[in-house]
């Protein structure tokens, strides 16, 4: 086992898996999402976001920080590869809160995993809710511990385009979801090969384009035990646990920093919190 993998497994509090199975893949993804927060604080601090694996490992593993999809899924994919799960990146379009008639850019990345003679999608870097490992099959449905259902559909066979939908409690999301009974598009993707330069370009747009979600709001999320979910948007903290949703405003910078560390596993200094100009 490499030092890279050993440090990653320690970060997500998971022992070295002994097999290459669907159950192990699901365990790794869930452990990752429960241990490493989703966040964009470096964007809001005016820092660049690197998609180079050593830089991602140093940030998310060594410095106890979080990141967004380009960081999470690069780290996740590299660990899966070393553990014997062949995988590659995909690029997708996130459809949450997108106005009618607008096509969003490709600002999301996930992993395509080969396992047991089948192909699966795995995603440790979607901040809107918890997306389970799913077999890539038209009409495939999977349920998560929060009570939500997720559905994959092939929408354009000619281009290989797929869409992931969710129907579940709004409280177990970052607040952009519709009610439980409604299927809502989360993101779409195709299976075209994705090169490092494609990820670099999408990451640059996501981290630098003015007035977008990632450059105008302080956001974080993390999966909690037993189907729970927590999300932070500015000073607004929402938590879902045991079927109950709670929302509160964090009153001070000290409270905000404490919640960021204790709940989201994201360590920022007092000086960094001050530089976010939230209070």
Please characterize this protein's 3D structure.
The structure is a single chain. Helix content is 30%, strand content 27%. By secondary structure, it is an alpha+beta fold. It has a single domain, classed as 2-Layer Sandwich (Arylamine N-acetyltransferase fold). The strands form 2 sheets. The chain has an 8-stranded antiparallel β-sheet with strand order 5-4-3-2-9-8-7-6. It has a 5-stranded antiparallel β-sheet with strand order 1-10-11-12-13. Strand 6 and strand 7 form a beta hairpin. Helix 4 crosses helix 5. The protein is globular. The mean pLDDT is 95.
Write the layout of secondary structure elements.
Elements (H helix, E strand, L loop, with lengths): L2 H9 L10 H14 L2 E2 L1 H4 L8 H10 L6 H14 L4 E8 L11 E10 L2 E5 L11 E2 L5 E3 L5 E8 L4 E7 L16 E6 L6 H13 L4 H4 L2 E6 L3 E6 L2 E6 L2 E6 L3 H10 L7 H6 L4
Antiparallel strand pairs: 1-10, 2-3, 2-9, 3-4, 4-5, 6-7, 7-8, 8-9, 10-11, 11-12, 12-13
């Amino acid at each position: 086992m490499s030092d890279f993998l050993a440090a990653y497994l320690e970060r997500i509090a998971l022992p070295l898996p002994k097999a290459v199975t669907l159950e192990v893949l699901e365990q790794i993804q869930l452990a990752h999402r429960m241990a490493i927060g989703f966040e964009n604080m470096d964007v809001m601090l005016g820092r660049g976001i690197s998609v180079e694996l050593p830089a991602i490992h140093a940030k998310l593993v060594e410095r106890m920080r979080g990141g967004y999809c380009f960081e999470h899924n690069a780290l996740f994919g590299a660990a899966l590869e070393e553990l014997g799960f062949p995988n590659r990146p995909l690029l997708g379009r996130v459809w949450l809160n997108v106005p009618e008639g607008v096509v969003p850019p490709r600002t999301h990345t996930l992993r395509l995993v080969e396992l047991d003679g089948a192909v699966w999608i795995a995603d440790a870097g979607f901040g809107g809710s918890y997306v389970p490992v799913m077999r890539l099959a038209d009409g495939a449905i999977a349920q998560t511990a929060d009570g939500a259902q997720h559905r994959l559909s092939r929408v354009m066979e000619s281009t290989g385009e797929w869409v992931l939908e969710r129907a579940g409690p709004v409280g177990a999301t970052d607040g952009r979801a519709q009610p439980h009974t409604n299927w809502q598009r989360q993101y779409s993707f195709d299976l075209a090969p994705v090169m490092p330069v494609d990820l670099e370009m999408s990451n640059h747009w996501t981290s630098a384009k003015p007035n977008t979600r990632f450059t105008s709001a302080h956001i974080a999320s993390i999966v909690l035990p037993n189907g729970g979910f927590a999300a932070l948007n500015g000073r607004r903290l929402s938590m879902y646990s045991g079927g109950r949703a709670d929302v509160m405003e964090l009153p001070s910078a000290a409270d905000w920093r404490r919640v960021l560390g204790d709940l989201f596993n994201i360590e920022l200094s007092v000086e960094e919190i001050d530089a976010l100009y939230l209070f």
